[in-house]
Amino acid sequence: MAPLLLLLLLAASVVTADEDAFIGVNIGTALSDMPNPTQVVALLKAQQIRHVRLYDADRAMLLALANTGIQVTVSVPNEELLGVGQSNATAANWVARNVVAHVPATNITAIAVGSEVLTTLPNAAPVLVSAMKFIHSALVASNLDDQIKVSTPHSSSFILDSFPPSQAFFNRSWDNVMVPMLKFLQSSGSYFMLNSYPYYDYMQSNGVIPLDYALFRPLPPNKEAVDANTLLHYTNVFDAVVDAAYFAMAYLNFTNVPIVVTESGWPSKGDKNEPDATLDNANTYNSNLIRHVLNNTGTPKHPGIAVSTYIYELYNEDMRPGSLSEKNWGLFDANGVPIYILHLTDSGMVLANDTTNQTYCVARDGADEKMLQAALDWACGPGKVDCSPLLQGQPCYEPDTVNAHATYAFNTYYHQMGMASGTCYFNGVASVTTSDPSHGSCKFHGSGGNGTFINGTSLAPSSNSTASGCSSNFHVGSAAITLIIGVLLWSAAFL
């Protein structure tokens, strides 16, 4: 069997990296005090979350997401699956009502047809592929099939003999569903949606899986799991499960369908029999997961191939049935307060407000220079940031670029406002990072050093900040004036 699997491994290398990986979040609604859609979107914007998955196609949420640019996966709920899968007309009506009515203002990029149908709703399995094809046909009729992909999330429990990954295969009793489904995904250029929960793999292993292996913690080489058939080394459960799915598809002769992980996370609280559902472990898992994904690490089978992942989930859902851990997978509570602060050193953006002074607000790479200029002028003017360190001859004048000067102003404002949620947005041209942007004698707030230009640690607004020197350093033309007006308009809502 090993030689055949090695051939499959080589054949599977045709999966290619079309784009960088992204991190998204799932938005559940089983909260007793669910924020309204406008509040949800405000939190997404403040945290720079650009990809979300909804478990339905709620009209109010889709309207709130309009004109944000946030990429949205909508879902056909399991309870609607039978109707959609048995009638092309019903599927067309669903697409017209829940997709066509909202695009292009709302950036819908995928439709998840059902969720874990083969393992949780087997009676609907016979119509699952029909439902996917009917939905896709409706997209084709509306010229949306290139923009919006159709797939369906699968539980990783559907993969049998998942370790070593090279021996994994899907539950063979569903071959009559999986083969046409994979043909559809391949022909439509879509991807395989996988729900992967290393927490449950760890819990159900009865001590066989080490906690560090589940949490992405570094392992010594002699502790890494090795696939004897391929000699690939696995340092974490997540990669092993993703590769098991790749091998299971290859077992059915499908080697060019990429994988997107639609759910993964770790609970921050659990019952007495769930001692590893803790804040620290949840923080460790999600922080390491985000870093792993955004670094485009890929998996041992497909190194460098994007495995975009949606974290489960945005909010703690106190109304979910079951154990205490079921209610505590969220990054935030209903008020938008972070459950814990993600530790994402050197990995770019964070998904939670930091109260430990260890994050910074910087200009986004590739941001429009005119938008940056407008935001810089606002920060140094109405934002009351003392921008005098940016004057020629001062510590932060060099490098003399809009990006560098905006980064200083944004970060100062962000810390001046106590790093509150929404204070590092600036109309989308700023983002939070854990990488200290200080350089030379230019020390940024939050770096642990105050530099030569800050008296003490006070961050009170300067009374002469409107004459701080930003405007004299940078010419403000009519286009920039127009953009400043735009900045002032959104600042009331987001700052």
What's the arrangement of secondary structure elements?
Blueprint lengths: L1 H10 L11 E5 L9 H10 L4 E4 L4 H6 L6 E6 L1 H9 L1 H13 L7 E6 L3 H4 L4 H17 L7 E3 L1 E3 L3 E2 L8 E2 L4 H14 L3 E4 L2 H7 L6 H4 L10 E2 L6 E2 L2 H15 L7 E6 L14 H16 L14 E3 L48 E4 L5 H12 L21 H15 L13 E4 L36 H4 L4 H17 L1
Parallel strand pairs: 1-2, 1-13, 2-3, 3-4, 4-5, 6-9, 9-12, 12-13
Antiparallel strand pairs: 7-8, 10-11, 14-15
Helix pairs in contact: 4-5, 4-7, 5-7, 7-8, 13-14, 13-16
Q: Can you put this structure into words, describing what you see?
A:
The chain is of the alpha/beta class. It has two domains: 2-327, Glycosidases (TIM Barrel, Alpha-Beta Barrel); 360-494, Methane Monooxygenase Hydroxylase, Chain G, domain 1 (Up-down Bundle), CATH 1.20.58. It has 16 helices and 15 strands. It has helices at residues 2-11, 37-46, 59-64, 78-86, 88-100, 117-120, 125-141, 175-188, 198-204, 211-214, 237-251, 279-294, 369-380, 402-416, 470-473, 478-494; strands at 23-27, 51-54, 71-76, 108-113, 149-151, 153-155, 159-160, 169-170, 192-195, 225-226, 233-234, 259-264, 309-311, 360-363, 430-433. The strands form four sheets. It has a nine-stranded parallel β-sheet. The chain has a two-stranded antiparallel sheet with strand order 7-8. It has a two-stranded antiparallel sheet with strand order 10-11. α4 (78-86) crosses α5. It starts with a helix and ends with a helix. Residues 1-17, 345-350 and 449-495 have low confidence and may be disordered. It comes from Nelumbo nucifera (Sacred lotus). Its main location: membrane.
